[in-house]
Amino acid sequence: xxxxxxxQFFLSPQAIxxxxxxxxxxxxxxxxxxxxxxxxxxxxKAAVVLVGTHYDRLQPGEAQAYFLTLKTLLANYTDMIKxxxxxxxxxxxxxxxxxxxxxxxxxxxxxYHEQVPRNYLTLLSKIESLRLMCPLPVMHxxxxxxxxxxxxxxxxxxxxxxxxxxxxxELVYFGGKRSELSEMTVLDPxx
Length: 191
Hints:
- By secondary structure, the protein is an alpha/beta fold.
- Helix content is about 40%, strand content about 15%.
- It is built from seven helices and six strands.
- The strands form two sheets. Strands 1-2-3 form a three-stranded parallel sheet, sandwiched between helices. A three-stranded antiparallel sheet has the order 4-6-5.
């Protein structure tokens, strides 16, 4: 349960989210609504792909009926849902098609074509190295500021680079918010 509560901190608007669920279970019991609500609140512009699994265990027509039921239940989220898919990892049914559709969706996203300054990528590389070296992947913001300066990032660009890394899901930083957390950065959001 703690996972569900803290997961919202790591949602990025510049992402495609696959909400994966087992189609042999009732649509009411698979937490789709929970995840879509979390995304709508914390990453409202993110693209969502609904992926039903266990396609091989359904009778002909059951998968389509399942998605029709979902369409009714999830009417408040239709603007977020960009794709749907039904797959079986046991048989491989529709997996390649889903992958191709997600790739095409990614190319359509505005952030996909965003130009990123080279020194931002240098900082990202440094952060990736620090993740491996730090037993606790947390750093005071002034230390991260110094690492950014070492990467030739101008002080005036620090907010932009940290915002970029947060949007990309590479860093957690609550800068600008008045709390004890505003002085700390989490170098490894998966930690």
